Amino acid sequence: MDFLGKLEALMGMEFGSTELLAKTGEIVAERAREEAEVLLDEGKVEDRMVTELFRVLKLMEMDLAMVKAAVKEDTLNQRLEQAKARCRQAILVANSF
């Protein structure tokens, strides 16, 4: 799930708007879910691992929604760091497949 790594890298760069970043995060999370479901259907991954990935992806999406809603620069940076941490956590879970 290389696209999770690309999303994390994107979060570390200057981006056009927080709305675009949040939308990108939603798209990446949905793609990760689709791939995990395919692996689950093929019996290549345990159900509990997919459940954990889904949980982390949902938390990442919530963090990105808070990035989008942030008004102050310091709040934006805090929320962005939290979203990046969740993305790294999702990468670790996905790599355990």
Descriptive terms for the model:
single chain, 97 residues, mainly alpha, 0% strand, Chloroplast_NDH_Assembly
3D structure, described in words:
- InterPro entries: Chloroplast_NDH_Assembly.
- This protein has 97 residues and is mainly alpha-helical.
- The protein has one domain (2-95).
- Helix content is 82%, strand content 0%.
- It has four helices and no strands.
- The chain has helices at residues 2-11, 18-41, 47-69, 73-95.
- Helix 1 (2-11) runs antiparallel to helix 2 (18-41), helix 2 (18-41) runs antiparallel to helix 3 and helix 3 packs antiparallel against helix 4 (73-95).
- It is elongated and about 45 Å long.
- The mean pLDDT is 93.
Quick synopsis:
InterPro entries: Chloroplast_NDH_Assembly. With 97 residues, the protein is mostly helical. Helices cover 82% and strands 0% of the residues.
Mean pLDDT: 93
Number of strands: 0
Task: Extract low-pLDDT stretches.
Answer: none
Calculate the terminal CA-CA distance, rounded to whole Å: 10 Å
Helix content: over 70%
> Helical segment tally?
4
Q: Categorize the overall geometry.
A: elongated
Portion in beta strands = under 5%
**Number of domains as seen in the coordinates:** 1
* Quaternary status: single chain
**Major beta sheet, specifics?**
none
Find the structural class using helix and strand composition.
mainly alpha
Q: Helix and strand succession?
A: HHHH
Radius of gyration: 14 Å
